[in-house]
Structure to design on (394 residues):
């Protein structure tokens, strides 16, 4: 018989000081995507201390720890990320980042520490497990093409894909001790747009002798918004944001030669995603040509839409309610942010849920990717215990 929820909660509570220390160590020494060599070495040393077998070197820094049950059964996966962001931390903490310009501002330190804790608990209870559990410590979630896609390409999860995969992610919108889940399509695809417009520069007082790429850029940016307003199905979430525009040269009285535009396109339908790419390219080239300018456009394919398997997610939600209580389990709305976990979800029944990390004493919960982001560390107990409880599901 598997341990009951009170036993798992007790094990998670006993591990909390240790897991908090692990999280703080990872936080102090952040490493960027695909550079997580010291972070991986640290996690491997902790797995080795506990006698937990693992394979490593996946996409250079990825680790897959294995807990083999005493009875035959399916292979199930649990995943956390290792990489940090290129952000200078502005928090005043005893464990503040010691790496200039690098910070765990998206909670991957929390995810990795909690996954280690869940792995330790599962390892201690392996005689009650049927099948095999894989605990994936993944590199490069924050950078294209995404460590998830590369780990799949290297067959880090085995020749035969597991029957399920589960991950959690910090969520400042909920207090510590709470979780949120959404079945079906949950997060958007995310593609990067790069536009290069070449006109004919010259004196700002003589525009008739020039081809002004700034005017062309302005028309392109405005026209592209009609893609969302008029071409997209109004019932289909779609976002097109142009976040950066620069001229090469130019001044108050100088028309520049070149303007560049950068942006992001996000949606929740793969067919519309690629049709939209075609329309974006057509609009850019047509408008530039109409003005006598030349345009080049590159659309970098990013992460796909993340879809939670409805059957697995329903099972996970039931287990959450059993473990935490119905008052701490929330239905949360779709998000237009993206996640490379979506690559796993394309080929394996998946559930990606949210872990509340906000304070309950009135302190501000800054959003992820903020230089002030920090978590209520009591959430680590929930993160560890719940993941272990899910791992021990029959």
């Amino acid at each position: 018989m598997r341990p009951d929820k009170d036993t798992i909660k007790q094990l998670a509570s006993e591990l909390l000081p240790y897991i908090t220390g692990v999280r703080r160590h990872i936080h102090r020494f952040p490493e960027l995507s695909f550079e997580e060599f010291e972070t991986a070495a640290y996690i491997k040393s902790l797995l080795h201390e506990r006698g937990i077998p693992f394979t490593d070197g996946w996409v250079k820094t990825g680790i897959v720890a294995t807990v083999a049950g005493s009875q035959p059964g399916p292979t199930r996966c649990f995943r956390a990320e290792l990489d940090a962001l290129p952000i200078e931390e502005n928090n005043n903490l005893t464990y503040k980042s010691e790496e200039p310009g690098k910070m765990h501002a998206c909670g991957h330190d929390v995810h990795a520490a909690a996954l280690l804790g869940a792995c330790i608990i599962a390892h201690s209870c392996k005689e009650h497990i049927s099948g095999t559990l894989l605990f994936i410590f993944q590199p490069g979630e924050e950078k294209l093409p995404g460590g998830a896609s590369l780990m799949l390409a290297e067959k880090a999860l085995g020749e035969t894909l597991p029957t399920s995969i589960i991950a959690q992610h910090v969520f400042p919108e909920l207090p510590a001790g709470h979780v949120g889940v959404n079945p079906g399509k949950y997060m958007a695809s995310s593609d990067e747009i790069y536009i290069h417009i070449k006109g004919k520069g010259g004196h700002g007082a003589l525009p008739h002798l020039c081809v002004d790429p700034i005017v062309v850029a302005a028309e392109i940016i405005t026209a592209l918004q009609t893609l969302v307003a008029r071409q997209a199905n109004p019932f289909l979430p779609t976002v097109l944001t142009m976040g950066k525009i620069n001229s090469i040269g130019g001044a108050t009285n100088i028309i520049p030669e070149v303007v560049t535009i950068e942006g992001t396109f996000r949606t929740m339908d793969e067919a519309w995603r690629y049709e939209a790419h075609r329309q974006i390219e057509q609009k850019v080239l047509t408008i530039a040509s109409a003005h006598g300018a030349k345009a080049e456009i590159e659309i970098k394919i990013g992460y796909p839409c993340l879809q939670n398997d409805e059957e697995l997610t329903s099972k996970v939600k039931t287990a959450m309610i059993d473990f935490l209580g119905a008052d701490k389990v929330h239905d949360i709305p779709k998000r237009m942010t993206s996640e490379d976990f979506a690559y796993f979800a394309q080929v394996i029944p998946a559930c990606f849920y949210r872990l509340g990390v906000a304070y309950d004493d009135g302190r501000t919960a800054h959003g992820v990717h903020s230089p002030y982001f920090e978590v209520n560390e009591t959430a680590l107990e929930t993160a560890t215990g719940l993941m272990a409880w899910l791992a021990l599901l029959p």
Observations:
- The CA atoms of residues 198 and 386 lie 55 Å apart.
- The longest strand covers residues 164-175.
